[in-house]
Amino acid sequence: MILSGNAVCVRGDNIDTDVLYPGSYLNTEDPQRMALFLFEGLDPKIREELVGDTVLVVDDNFGSGSSREHVPQAIRANGITCVVGKTFARIFYRNCFNLGVPAIVCPEASAAATKGSQITVDTAAGVVTVDGQAFQAKPIPPFMLDMLTAGGLVPWSRRRSA
């Protein structure tokens, strides 16, 4: 799977899901409506940068805190093709894959990216290219790549049980 887009950088370590998607919006069930509240507790102006194909670039331990599936759902609904980070909180990382959002661990690519950088991710080869410079990402296990191709855990499970 080849993914690409312009970088939107959310800098800072240990950014938790409580500020990415505040609790007052957790009663929203429609992902398109969830998209309206992504980054609400951090900086709502970030949503203005999410135009066209976007790759979200983050720092260490992104998505810590509460296990909010709303965050990856809102990420996907905002048209973000993938998230490239130095590291991710464990539950957030799995929630991304379960909901069909590639989360790519590549500290060097994260550090190299700036606002508007052109980023391409080859999930099969595990290569992240930032403004023409290639970096080796942490490999994604084959079953998780298969899950992404299927669109997430539920479609993957349905396909396997059919």
List keywords for this structure.
seven-stranded mixed β-sheet; single chain; 162 residues; 7 helices; Aconitase, domain 4; alpha/beta; 30% helix
Give the N-to-C terminal Cα separation: 24 Å
DSSP E strands, number: 7
CATH architecture: Alpha-Beta Barrel
What's the main sheet like? Answer: 7 strands, mixed
Tell me the name of the CATH class: Alpha Beta
The quaternary structure here is: single chain
CATH superfamily placement: Aconitase, domain 4
Low-confidence stretches: none
Given the C-alpha coordinates, what overall shape results? globular
Tell me the domain tally: 1
From the helix content, strand content and strand pairing, which structural class follows? alpha/beta
CATH fold node name: Aconitase, domain 4
Order of helices and strands: EHHEHEHEHEEEHH
- Over all CA atoms, what is the radius of gyration? 15 Å
Mean pLDDT: 95
Number of helices: 7
Q: Going across the biggest sheet, name each strand in turn.
A: 4-3-2-1-5-6-7
**Helix content range:** 25-40%
